[in-house]
Amino acid sequence: MTDNTFSITNTVTVPIRGAKKERVFLRVSDAHVAFAYPDDSQAEHEHAKKQTALWTQSGIAPIDAFKSFIALANDKKPDGVFLVGDMIDYYTASNVKYLAELLGELDSEYIYTWGNHENGSYGLPLPSNEEMRQTIAPLMHGCTDFYVKDHDDFLVVAIDNSGFDIDDTLLGRVEQVIATGRPIILLMHVPISTPEFDKVAWSTLDKDERTKPSAIKFAQMLRNSDNIVCIIAGHEHFAWCGEFAPGRYQYVSAPCFKRFVQEIRVVPREDKTNT
Ligand SMILES: [Fe+2]
Asked: How far is CA 78 from the centre of its chain?
């Protein structure tokens, strides 16, 4: 019988100068939850069944994997949980509703960033972009493209970069928060390119066929801003970490359905080189 108990896959340490105490976060991405309620259409049921089979790659169905993650998080009681996009496999009101039910079981405060699957369809009819955003917004603190959580010693900033295009409004918000000079842990679904990452990545924000000039400008802004202390991303469906700028790391996760759970420990940094 398969063991559905989850454990932490790896731990990364993020030193932040000025941090007064250690804080622990758990993060997952790419849960790809696909679900249909009894009253949903036959097409939705068939779709959920097909996609669930597609993402059952480690002896556990995506929904059971996410439930196991929630059980782990409730056991570990972290200071917060990061959900870094593609938490549903495609948009239906039922998928969002079911995800909300699952998240209702999570004891910790969470930050949920938009991934490219949150408004994906795979052939099912989609409502307007505005309607999809309104439906998912309650799970994202009311804002689907930008959210800031203040942890006193540092900020956690979540942005939607899933469209490979950072519009002027979003760019302005990010510029504003960077200009505060405060240390920032940045959550976004799609990682940025680095010379090392480009050897293995299949899609990055600034080197993808969908990339707009604004995304290239944004990625460069992150590299140039010393107070972006780390980037937490998903999207690739494999785990990777490496520097996106000297001394600053990007952590890319494997999917939740492959049982990947990363622990992020923010610790005080004593030296004088950090912002
Ligand atoms: Fe994904």
From this structure: 16
